[in-house]
Amino acid sequence: MLLGWCGKMNKDFWHGKSVLITGNTGFKGSWMSQILLSSGADVHGYALENNDNDSIFNAIELDKNMDCNYGDICDEEKLAGLIERIKPEIVFHLAAQPIVRLSYVEPIYTYKTNVIGTAVLLNCLRKCDKLRSVVNITTDKVYENGNNDAFFSEKDKLGGYDPYASSKACSEIVTSSFMRSFFDPQKFGVTHSTAIATARAGNVIGGGDVSPDRIIPDCIRAVKNKSSVTLRNPMSIRPWQNVLEPLSLYITLAEKLYDYGVKYNGAYNVGPSLSDCLTVVEIVKLMKSYIPELEYNVSDNAVKEEPHEDAVLTLNTGKIYQLLDFSNKWDINDAVKNTALWYKAQMNGEDMKDVTEKMIQDYFTKDR
Fold first, then answer.
1. Half-sphere exposure (Cβ direction) of 274: Cα atoms closer than 13 Å
2. pLDDT digits (tens, 9 = 90+) for 280-291
3. How far apart are CA 98 and CA 173, in angstroms?
4. Could you tell me if 182 and 298 are in contact, meaning their C-beta atoms sit under 8 angstroms apart?
5. pLDDT band at 181 (very low <50, low <70, confident <90, very high)
6. What is the pTM of this model?
């Protein structure tokens, strides 16, 4: 069913478009899938299976409403076969190993998924004649961070302390290399019609995230288990935003790439205003204001026992404001409130597809 808000998303643009979303069974991929399905797009997914019933993917039964294809992002033969079948016009690349702490445990898997997986996808897309726009979603952690209160812009040096962060920086480099080598902007409209961008999003929160070692899912698990969540890095500052904010930007960016080509190639920071960059303990306190049952504590040894994570991470988002006329619709209070409402509805046994569609509609009908 097409929702009333689709006109604000350019319903005519998305209706009938063949779209591939890698990582569609994940948190952000599931929200993206539902948005585009409701906009009339022909949505196809390629990802690992998701067997967690509490995840948004299973909560809204996405497998019943879209073309889901299961496989490893590094399986070039399987991925190439899917691309040949569906002939995507637009691709959102979200498939990844996204957990920092897991990257310390499984660094090779992290690099294979995030670096080689990106190369495999882009290599498969080289043969796709109908392809017009590709958006590779990376992370705000791609920057070389000296924890000196830096306000990172897209021109800052790439780096990454941990295997996850550095693998995403590598994904950025791979994307840039493929763009220049096989989707040369100078040959746009002559040898190819593909424009490519990367999006570096800050910390994303929202309903249906069940990932390990993320603060909001950890909070929800603690509430369900009637236990207390331990804050590992309580004073770390992050650019928090609701999941619908970056997804809206990815969609806007894909439209621009499709309509105007390589003019919009490049990297884009995606994040909230500086006033919405809170510490971990502040975001948990705000969450507790909407879910009073939430209990938390700070262990004296929590930080000592944890692998390295940057203490401060903030983004300069002037580029998306200037080039795309984009700014967040929800401030940090709205972001946390809607996250809490989704989880509370799930714990109350409500119809989560209806809840999710209503939340999407509320977001897209709100003025920016």
1. 7
2. 999 999 999 999
3. 18
4. no
5. very high
6. 0.94
Residues making up the chain, counted from first to last: 368
The H or E element that residue 163 is part of is helix 163-182
Give me the percent of the chain exceeding a pLDDT of 90: 84
Q: Cα dihedral sign for 116, 117, 120, 122?
A: negative
Residue 16 Rama label (left phi>0; alpha psi -120 to 50; beta): left
Residue found under tokens 């809170």: 278
Count Cβ atoms within 10 A of the Cβ of residue 156 and give its class: 0-12 exposed, 13-18 middle, 19 or more buried: middle
Higher pLDDT, 74 or 367: 74
Residue 2 confidence (pLDDT) above 90: no
**Nearest-CA neighbor of 209 among 48, 343, 320?**
343
Question: CA 44 to CA 51: how far, in whole Å?
Answer: 19
Question: CA–CA distance from 96 to each of 30, 117, 132, 152 (Å)?
Answer: 14, 8, 22, 23
The stretch 150-164 carries a mean pLDDT of 92
Of 273, 256, 284, which is closest to residue 197 (Cα–Cα)? 256
- Provide the token pair at 347: 């714990």
Domains and CATH numbers, the chain: 4-204+240-272+313-333 (3.40.50.720)
Secondary structure class of 364 (helix, strand, coil): helix
